[in-house]
Amino acid sequence: MSSSGVAIWCGSTNSATEEGKELNDPRVLTDVGDVPVQEIRDCGVDDDRLMSVISESVKLVMEEDPLRPLVLGGDHSISFPVVRAVSEKLGGPVDILHLDAHPDIYDCFEGNKYSHASSFARIMEGGYARRLLQVGIRSITTEGREQGKRFGVEQYEMRTFSKDCHFLENLKLGEGVKGVYISVDVDCLDPAFAPGVSHIEPGGLSFRDVLNILHNLEGNLVAADVVEFNPQRDTVDGMTAMVAAKLVRELAAKMSK
Question: Binding residues for Mn(2+), per the UniProt record (predicted)?
Answer without folding.
Answer: 76, 100, 102, 104, 185, 187
